[in-house]
């Protein structure tokens, strides 16, 4: 789908999250402590007046591009493309000098059309590299938001990193429920618990989430950022939910596992899967073992935009396990899993 970020490509981070989740606070913390590079921030606020830009502490090194006539993800998607083209021209001519781009979406935005912008426009695809999707989650209100605002499901589903805020406002039991529900929606994203946006930029910038790498991590817990100890990061195992909770979320994570696969069969499976269900598949990634090939086959996609490449070699036979993770609206998993297992090389 994409090539690894090179020095000539501008890295861009998409920052999303529902209203009040703390996106502006996170950006302000970054700007206050980011002294070694110049950043361009594209803001979008739902409605005719952009309020967030007046809250940002802007230095002379930061340029704010405001888009105030609607939501990026729908009515003004073309404006985002135009803004990116103009920024590229200004960077090329030396009128503006900057090292990275951060796009902060309105809390009401579905990230999907914004993400697709980076793959369907030729100039953007050749000059800008989408580095990662960061979703902020208000722990105090997310369960209510998930039940009432489906866009929050999409925001969590697309995420590469999830930053949990306002955990000081809830009990440990409530936090466990929040984390478990997030994990059910997206068990591939790494979760960080942060206070007032205080999180090292290394944990959410330059994460290379859209590289065709052979790393496939299934989240087993979350990281707690302790601001009193120089932003020390401590790993906590996934909290065990004491009683089952019925959630009606229509986005969740699916894991397909098998042994060595037949290249032609898995190719046909992926082609059929993407064609039939691609519009419902938010993010997906696979690291596959192919019969008679010592290299990992990497597959990664967003909706119907998918890429394949070979990664590093397998070190031993015990490692040769094919895994495909799909974050999607409801899929007929049992049926698809049977088809996936039929791609095993000896069948």
How many β-strand stretches? Answer: 14
What is the CA-CA span between the terminal residues?
A: 29 Å
Report the principal-axis shape.
globular
Q: By helix and strand content, what is the structural category? A: alpha/beta
Number of helices: 10
How would you describe what is shown here?
With 347 residues, this protein is of the alpha/beta class. 29% of the residues lie in helices and 28% in strands. It has helices spanning 23-33, 52-55, 77-93, 112-120, 122-127, 142-148, 151-157, 172-185, 263-277, 333-341, and strands spanning 10-17, 39-44, 63-67, 100-104, 128-138, 161-165, 190-193, 221-226, 232-237, 251-258, 281-289, 295-302, 305-313, 322-329. The chain has a 9-stranded mixed beta sheet with strand order 3-2-4-1-5-6-7-8-9, with helices on both faces. The chain is globular. Residues 2-7 and 67-78 have low confidence and may be disordered.
Topology diagram in text:
Elements lengths: L9 E8 L5 H11 L5 E6 L7 H4 L7 E5 L9 H17 L6 E5 L7 H9 L1 H6 E11 L3 H7 L2 H7 L3 E5 L6 H14 L4 E4 L27 E6 L5 E6 L13 E8 L4 H15 L3 E9 L5 E8 L2 E9 L8 E8 L3 H9 L6
Parallel strand pairs: 1-4, 1-5, 2-3, 2-4, 5-6, 6-7, 7-8
Antiparallel strand pairs: 8-9, 10-14, 11-12, 11-14, 12-13
Describe what is shown at a glance.
The protein has helices spanning 23-33, 52-55, 77-93, 112-120, 122-127, 142-148, 151-157, 172-185, 263-277, 333-341; strands at residues 10-17, 39-44, 63-67, 100-104, 128-138, 161-165, 190-193, 221-226, 232-237, 251-258, 281-289, 295-302, 305-313, 322-329. The chain is of the alpha/beta class and 347 residues long.
